Amino acid sequence: MSAGGKRVRVVTMGCSKNRVDSEHLLIQLAAAGWEVSPEEVPLEEAGVDVLIINTCGFILDAKEESVDAILEAVDAKKNGIISRLYVMGCLSQRYPGELPAEIPEVDGFFGAFSIGPLLKVLGVRPDPALETRRFLTTPAHYAYLKISEGCDRKCSYCAIPGIRGPHMSVPEEKLLDEAAYLVDKGVKELIVIAQDTTFYGLDLYGERRLGHLLNRLTDIRGIEWIRLLYSYPASFPRDVLDIMASSPKICKYLDIPLQHSADPVLKAMRRSIDARATRELVEDFRRRVPGIVLRTTMMVGHPGEGEKEFENLLDFVNEYRFERLGAFAYSEEDGTWGAQNLKDAVPESVKQERLDELMELQAAISLRYNESRIGTVERVLVDSRDSAGRTCTGRTSMEAPEVDGEVVIECPDGVALPETGSFVDVRITGADEYDLNAEML
């Protein structure tokens, strides 16, 4: 334990949106004199007084992972490794009564919007001047910018609206102030996130203002890359494509979960878009932004997906050959429209077989795409370095951190190993289905 009892660690589970919440909490604690313990140091060696777990409660696997982390922390408390344990975030927002009853060893549970009450328990008065400030837990050269909270969509399988509430945009001026602060701290890549980034501005300005916001972000000196994640296909704002095609700062990269390609499944999912419009959208992306890299997510086993619909999905993925694709099997989530109105009729074994088949197809597509880049010269942002092995790892504008592959760069003897956060030009020399190999130029 620390001498003053004021060393804290925040463990963030789930998505990057949770990470932003953790960073807003940590800046308040740090400003109040708390010492922040980095997550990479083993807990038993860190001398942590207070451990805070920011949980995810989206789907079954995420919930189980969060619960496991809480139980491990309970053991750490029993063994005297930490003094106090608090839980915040989506899981405790979703199960405010059940969790305290099941895990009474936790000193306090706080919801997804309870930073203020948690700070009060820790004896910290929130400083309004720090509203747009963050304690970065990512490498110093990239950061996430959360532009809105909540979601107005009514997808059948999704618990997020029930956890995070309706869509609420962050005012543009606050976002620009936060972005400028991050750049002053050394951030070169800004990753724009929300539950649905395409909805940005509707509640505040009466219109979709994502494109306008992106344009204003490009005016901030010091930003090199701006990356867009978590977009929704229905009513996608097409002006964003024009900005992406014309601005050298906007990465030609888009994360847009499509979830399926067959009309019966899309209708059952309540996705507000049909198969024809989905195909037209993807074709529009390819046509208007040449060279765009598309990351998408698909779901298998949703009610309404028979063998015919699954084959439709395989054909769709094979036809449009997304550079990046993740997938997961449907799980019936309590409180969702699907759990209340649809029958989860696809056996778990069949869901897993379909998931394996889809990802096997995507592995071949990803490998072919990566191999097509061998011999090209690309600009890489260095994320980490290994001085002993004379290698460093990084990403091009076509890879997002944490979810995509890396570029492993060999640095010849006599050539200085590039610093973390620097940009270097490399030649791609090899590829597998996930990562790339390269040599310094």
Automatic annotation (TrEMBL):
Pfam families, per the entry: Radical_SAM, TRAM_2, UPF0004
InterPro entries, per database record: Elp3/MiaA/NifB-like_rSAM, Methylthiotransferase, Methylthiotransferase_CS, Methylthiotransferase_N, Methylthiotransferase_N_sf, NA-bd_OB-fold, Ribosomal_uS12_MeSTrfase_RimO, rSAM
Single GO cellular component term: cytosol
Entry's EC annotation: 2.8.4.4
Top-rank taxon: Bacteria
Binding, [4Fe-4S] cluster 2: C151, C155, C158
Domain MTTase N-terminal residues, every copy: 6-127
Compartments (UniProt record): Cytoplasm
UniProt KW Iron-sulfur keyword: yes
Entry keyword set: 4Fe-4S, Cytoplasm, Iron, Iron-sulfur, Metal-binding, Ribonucleoprotein, Ribosomal protein, S-adenosyl-L-methionine, Transferase
Cofactor(s) listed: [4Fe-4S] cluster
Positions that bind [4Fe-4S] cluster 1: C15, C56, C90
Role summary: Catalyzes the methylthiolation of an aspartic acid residue of ribosomal protein uS12.
Family: Belongs to the methylthiotransferase family. RimO subfamily.
Protein name: Ribosomal protein uS12 methylthiotransferase RimO
Organism listed in the record: Candidatus Coprenecus avistercoris
Lineage of producing organism: Bacteria, Pseudomonadati, Bacteroidota, Bacteroidia, Bacteroidales
Gene that encodes the chain: rimO
